[in-house]
Write a structure and sequence with these properties.
This protein is of the alpha+beta class and 104 residues long. The chain is built from three helices and two strands, in the order H-E-E-H-H.
Length: 104
């Protein structure tokens, strides 16, 4: 049983160090995912949180692509939705990690 707990703990540790920015891109028919690592950041500090926010925004720009006059609204909406979803995923990962630590 302890081995299972250690495996689950290790899984949550890995999950909690990456989030994925996924977007249904307006310029392509498929969903594009860009991993965002943050295990090297102290996300509880102002500087770490700002760095993570910058990484999420950069990944959203990569996933959604460049805009032109005809696609500017769709691309902006894609980026906004991708950022919101990534931050929600981050919040869920944080809660899962807290729950895992509480069960130890």
């Amino acid at each position: 049983m302890q081995s299972l707990k250690n495996t689950v703990a290790g899984t949550f540790a890995v999950v909690a160090t990456f989030i994925t920015v996924a977007a249904a891109t307006p310029l392509r028919a498929e969903t594009v995912s860009v991993p965002v690592a943050y295990s090297d950041l102290n996300v509880h500090s102002e500087a770490g949180a700002a760095q993570l926010d910058a990484r999420i925004r950069k990944a959203a720009y990569q996933a959604c692509g460049q805009s032109d006059v005809g696609s500017i609204i769709k691309v902006a909406s894609c980026r906004r939705d991708a950022i919101v979803a990534a931050k929600a995923q981050l919040a869920m990962n944080s809660k899962a990690a807290e729950l895992q630590l509480a069960t130890r």
